[in-house]
Amino acid sequence: GQQVMQIPQYQHVQEGEDFTTYCNSSTTLSNIQWYKQRPGGHPVFLIQLVKSGEVKKQKRLTFQFGEAKKNSSLHITATQTTDVGTYFCAVIYGGATNKLIFGTGTLLAVQP
Amino acid sequence: DTGVSQNPRHKITKRGQNVTFRCDPISEHNRLYWYRQTLGQGPEFLTYFQNEAQLEKSRLLSDRFSAERPKGSFSTLEIQRTEQGDSAMYLCASSLVDGRTEAFFGQGTRLTVV
What letter would DSSP give residue A84? Predict the structure, then answer.
């Protein structure tokens, strides 16, 4: 079946520390997306990765797509309290279904 | 167009009652998804549409759940004979289908079954 696992489930950091979440798939992916959901909010799109080994940056956020296109990571440098929320990876499984499936998510707590 | 709109935002219902939720996607989006999310979990795929065609329904979804998207515009999700286990946030999302598959979510409908 289609499974997208994320680790860790929860991470608590002091403001200024770095944070990384990992997303792993059991199958090769055509692309991967990352979303952020603030407490009480809805998921908001951050970025999409398509190419093997791709690295993209958004200010303090760095996104990587694995060479085998089965895993991805999101790294936040020098976390701020505004980074609090749950980070989800999401994948499109191709073929007949081609639907968007979300990972289990990583909840980030940042202590000022 | 201000984005994806869902109504109602909150719904409290008694067990056994039927409920219906509505989603108005971004107007030019062909694809529409329904997800269910419980506390501490990621959005769980329920079903999705390409225009008016329902392409897939999750095998985990009971027959009490049905969705429609008449004319490929707004969509409704109906839950019949609600159970306490149906209590969750129901999220709708829409996206284009031209390789730019970024999904835009609505604010969700929070269902509480008492």
Answer: -
β-pairing, B10-13 vs B109-113, is parallel
- Put simply, the answer to whether A100 touches B95 (Cβ < 8 Å) is yes
Query: How far, in Å, CA of B104 to CA of B92, rounded?
Result: 8
End-to-end CA distance of chain B: 35
Q: Which residue bears the tokens 């191709």?
A: A94
A16: closest CA of chain B, how far (Å)? 25
**CA quadruple A56, A41, A10, B60: dihedral, nearest 10:** -100
In angstroms, rounded to a whole number, what is the distance separating the alpha carbons of residues B94 and B89?
A: 17
- Chain B residue numbers with beta carbons less than 8 Å from the beta carbon of A3 are none
**pLDDT for B59-74, tens place per residue?**
878 899 999 999 889 9
How far away is chain A from the Cα of B107, in angstroms, using its nearest Cα?
Answer: 6
> pLDDT tens digits for B39-62?
989 999 999 999 999 988 888 788
List pLDDT tens digits, range B83-102: 999 999 999 999 987 555 79
Q: Which residues of A touch B105 (CB under 8 A)?
A: 42-44
Between the two ends of chain A, the Cα-to-Cα distance in Å is 41
A chain contacts of residue B102, beta-carbon cutoff 8 Å? 33, 45, 48
Contacts of B77 (CB under 8 A, 6+ apart): B20, B21, B23, B34, B46, B47, B65, B66, B67, B90, B92
Written as six digits, the tokens of B102 are 């970024």
